[in-house]
Design goal:
Length: 466
Amino acid sequence: MIYHSTRGQAPVLGFDDVLLAGLARDGGLYLPTRWPTLSAGDLRAMAGLSYAEIAVRVMGPFLDGSVAEDDFAQLVADAYGGFDHAAVAPLKQLGPNDWLLELFHGPTLAFKDYALQLLGRLFDHVLSKKGQRVTIVGATSGDTGSAAIEACRDRDAVDVVILHPHGRTSDVQRRQMTTVTAANVHNIALEGTFDDCQDLVKAMFNDQAFRDEMHLSAVNSINWARIMAQIVYYVAAGTALGAPDRGLAFAVPTGNFGNVYAAFAARRMGLPISQLVVGSNSNDILTRFFETGEMRMGQVVPSLSPSMDIQVSSNFERYLFDLFAEDATEVEARMGAFRQSGSFSVDHGRMAGVRAVFDGFRLDDDGTRRVIRQLFEETGELIDPHSAVGIAAGRARRRDPAIPMVALATAHPAKFPDAVEAATGVRPPLPARLADLFDRSERYDVLPNDLAVVQDYVRRVARVAA
């Protein structure tokens, strides 16, 4: 299995090198040159397997021998062995053909754990084999950072520098990052938005001299291994609900398009997904695209669902590559137009194909509070604001009531206790292992939105520069 860039100018790489590279050297994102397939027989054979067993079967073809089969099975077992639900990613029924996929049972209470717990172990395995070390730089709107830090803390071959938008995460999200005292972990509170954080990370990767000097690697969903690992929970949910003999629909709250692209990838591999609903908050660039065919950047508006406060959806480039039949020249032209003018368009013919699979839905903060309250009154379930957007999107846009609609619960309600309490009158408690979170000391540095300043900081803290 080899991987090529969406912009066509970077060298093709094997899995090991794609894992360590993150962003391609031409600024594009890596994708497999061919997609593994899951036959009807493959899907039926997964019924009743554990999450880890399904994960090994789904991800194995993407590695194609880069990691020995027994080693990979052990890495996967270790990654999910500490999750606090036996099913790892359990399904909960909310109503007739109305399901919730709970993706908050990992160590940092958010769906990012499902990829990053594995990613940290893969980094360790591959770097040890190569005798190398890396500096991971990442941007977070709230959840990726804590999941990456938890996965990579105290690892000998890795330094971690995470940028988050200063004052724009929940207190729980921030403290899950900034109270980790591991010597290899460093937090930057950037004076700007998540998009500013993401732009600086991409700029560091695109500075080839700096990238090589610091041995940069990525944990954001620009890293293909993140997408690969997220495909698994769609397949696990699908087989639990009767695939391949029953169709499926998923509703995914997303800002950066990575989580829903993993669903699209599962569909490409053979999971019978008839509909994907993208849930947006007031930062609705994706929903506007599905409505109009135009991707137009707007101003980032703070919301109750801060992990989706994004106006530059990096992973959409992977979908564009599929949409334009893997024409890297077209992708580069669209992305260049987006950077220069803040917009690009897709023609009506292609949009018909997009809308055959995708729908978009937006929900503002008032609507988010209303959904949290209504679900609590109907079922007694407490959900976080992001999950509320997903549930509302699925209910509003579902096409076929006979097909199970699975909404993704992407974060534990205790990560956003103020919003949940305001909507329901009930304050969700943190799990016991995080009960003292607000008593722990924080450690982070506030920096301006300045590439040179951030690069100097990375040079100072990363041990590869010593």
